[in-house]
Amino acid sequence: MKIYTRTGDGGDTSLFAGGRISKGHVRVHAYGTVDELNSLLGVVAAGDLNRAVAEQIQRVQAELFIVGGDLATPLDAEAKWIVRVTTDLVERLEAEIDQWDEGLTPLKNFILPGGCVAGALLHQARTVCRRAERWIVMLQESEEVNPEVLRYLNRLSDWLFVAARTVNQQAGKEETRWQSPARDKNS
User: Fold this and answer.
1) Which domain CATH number covers 29?
2) 3-state SS string for 93-127
3) Tens digits of per-residue pLDDT, 90-122?
4) Domain extent at residue 73
5) Residue 13: phi, psi to the nearest 5?
6) Where are the beta strands (DSSP E) in the chain?
């Protein structure tokens, strides 16, 4: 099987359940941003991570294929074979956030993204996840979307934030508190 098909040379692409849409369609931006997030998590997972965290990241990468497939298949499509995002995926993220959060110092200030390389990349992944959310909100303005997709990505951005803090803590990197310039002048 060849990797190239030439079917997208005119600027359109196929949806999972059939049909074609423009590569500039908001749906393609949504699942394309999820794909970008997945690739960025692959960079994180390729680094020097605690084994448990690496396994959790790889599980999330697999779940992002479900998210992308869900977004690439309109809800009214006749595709019984498509796997959709469900509440249990959201709940698993919540449980992991709660577990990690117990071992972290409570935040009283905003923190600057950074720390070790993996921590900084997880902060970047959080911003890509938020962009995917925005594309999905725009898609929802014109088409029905599985509501669990947006819930999953919203929770995933929180998960990525707490994962970044956890990875930085495991690496012995202190968080840099954000200080308002106006606050510094009044100190």
Assistant:
1) 1.20.1200.10
2) HHHHHHHHHHCCCCCCCCECCCCCHHHHHHHHHHH
3) 999 999 999 999 999 888 889 889 999 999 999
4) 14-104+112-185
5) -145, 160
6) 12-14, 20-22
